[in-house]
Amino acid sequence: MRPRDVLLMAFFVVGACVLIAGCAAPEGDVTTPTASPTVAMTDTPAPTETSAPTTETATPSPTDGGSQSVTIDLVAENTAFDTGTLTVPPGAEVTVNFDNRDTVPHNLAVYETASAENAIFVGEIFSGPAQMTYTFTAPEEPGTYFFRCDVHPQQMTGDFIVE
Ligand SMILES: [Cu+2]
């Protein structure tokens, strides 16, 4: 650091001190603080600590380790799922063994919201009795999502929980 910069900085610091003192002592006693002698010392080489540039740590989300995989058994029978909650880890590779025991068609579809916005996964619709294996990747973001059968969006719904 050049001497001129040190002077500038000293000036700035003293100014800041005066400002702060002014604010801290609202009434009376406006004795300016003993003009900080620590800053004014000249020819000493600039302390090394000031040279450290402030590094903004832009954490590049590590996504550590391989993603987990989970297998879920899901049954559709009498136009109803056998569970109202499916829970998986964040970012998991999800395998759903889907068992449609009805003659009417069903599927499993996962959406971000209960109004079926932003599909995360939409499984093929098929009539039973039959079984099908679905695979998809769970959202990375923990939270409560939504699943349903697209053929029966009123009767067959549930919470898809990522945690
Ligand atoms: Cu259905």
Structural overview:
The protein is α+β, with helices and mostly antiparallel strands. It has 2 domains: 3-48, no CATH class; 69-162, Cupredoxins -  blue copper proteins (Immunoglobulin-like, Sandwich). The protein has helices at 3-24, 37-40; strands at 69-76, 85-88, 93-100, 105-106, 109-111, 119-122, 126-127, 130-137, 143-148, 157-162. The protein has a 5-stranded mixed sheet with strand order 2-10-9-5-6, with no helix packed on it. The chain has a 3-stranded mixed sheet with strand order 1-3-8, with no helix packed on it. It has a two-stranded antiparallel sheet with strand order 4-7. 13% of the residues are buried. Mean pLDDT is 77; it is low at 6-26, 31-41 and 59-63. It binds copper (II) ion. Residues 76, 79, 106, 149, 151-152, 156 line the site of copper (II) ion.
Keywords:
31% strand; single chain; 163 residues; alpha+beta; 16% helix; 2 helices; 10 strands; Immunoglobulin-like; 5-stranded mixed beta sheet; binds copper (II) ion
Short structural summary:
By secondary structure, this protein is of the alpha+beta class.
Class inferred from helices and paired strands: alpha+beta
What is the architecture of the largest domain at the second tier of CATH? Sandwich
Q: What Rg, in angstroms, do the CA atoms define?
A: 32 Å
Distance between the termini: 51 Å
Helical residue percent band: 10-25%
How many runs of DSSP E, i.e. beta strands? 10
What's the tally of helices? 2
Q: Name the CATH class of the largest domain.
A: Mainly Beta
What small-molecule ligands were found? copper (II) ion
Summarize model confidence as the mean pLDDT: 77
Per DSSP, what share of the residues sits in E-state strands of 2 or more residues?
25-35%
Q: Order of helices and strands, N to C?
A: HHEEEEEEEEEE
Largest sheet properties = 5 strands, mixed
Ranges with pLDDT <50 over ≥5 residues?
6-26, 31-41, 59-63
Strand order of the largest sheet: 2-10-9-5-6
